[in-house]
Amino acid sequence: MREIGKVFAKKFKDTGITKVVTIEASGIAPALYAAEALDVPMIFAKKAKNITMNEGILTAEVYSFTKQVTSTVSIASKFLTPEDKVLIVDDFLANGQAAKGLIQIIEEAGAHVEAVGIVIEKSFQDGRAILEEAGYPVVSLARLERFENGQVVFKEADI
């Protein structure tokens, strides 16, 4: 996982990233190591609402294609500022809904999304196209093109 973080850091070291953002729980490890390698803070959006936190909370609805459930994810607004340049990091990209939810929260805070870093992209789904059409660069370490005869067929990775 640390090597994954280093790969993202190498790709984005000259972009002025000030924060790395992800959604709990499986995105935390790659995001944390990317943040460590970039020497910036990592923030994760919570899926469960904290009853003690009501003010200054930014939220978005996120539909999970894999789990077939919609979650409300949230980040306290005090963790993002208009000066922030954010790298979103997540473990998987399928239909782009998690990234879109994070983008909504980040932009509501006035911060700027520099790029979306993905460990494994399901290229046979439309997540990349949705994000790129909206103007967000996507960088994937592994891209699954399809499954054929019980085997995974990969596309060329971005880096």
TrEMBL record:
<keyword id="KW-0808">Transferase</keyword>
<dbReference type="InterPro" id="IPR050118">
    <property type="entry name" value="Pur/Pyrimidine_PRTase"/>
</dbReference>
<dbReference type="InterPro" id="IPR000836">
    <property type="entry name" value="PRTase_dom"/>
</dbReference>
<dbReference type="GO" id="GO:0000310">
    <property type="term" value="F:xanthine phosphoribosyltransferase activity"/>
</dbReference>
<dbReference type="GO" id="GO:0006166">
    <property type="term" value="P:purine ribonucleoside salvage"/>
</dbReference>
<keyword id="KW-0963">Cytoplasm</keyword>
<dbReference type="GO" id="GO:0046110">
    <property type="term" value="P:xanthine metabolic process"/>
</dbReference>
<dbReference type="InterPro" id="IPR029057">
    <property type="entry name" value="PRTase-like"/>
</dbReference>
<keyword id="KW-0660">Purine salvage</keyword>
<dbReference type="InterPro" id="IPR010079">
    <property type="entry name" value="Xanthine_PRibTrfase"/>
</dbReference>
<dbReference type="Pfam" id="PF00156">
    <property type="entry name" value="Pribosyltran"/>
</dbReference>
<keyword id="KW-0328">Glycosyltransferase</keyword>
<feature type="domain" description="Phosphoribosyltransferase">
    <location>
        <begin position="3"/>
        <end position="113"/>
    </location>
</feature>
<protein>
    <recommendedName>
        <fullName>Xanthine phosphoribosyltransferase</fullName>
        <ecNumber>2.4.2.22</ecNumber>
    </recommendedName>
</protein>
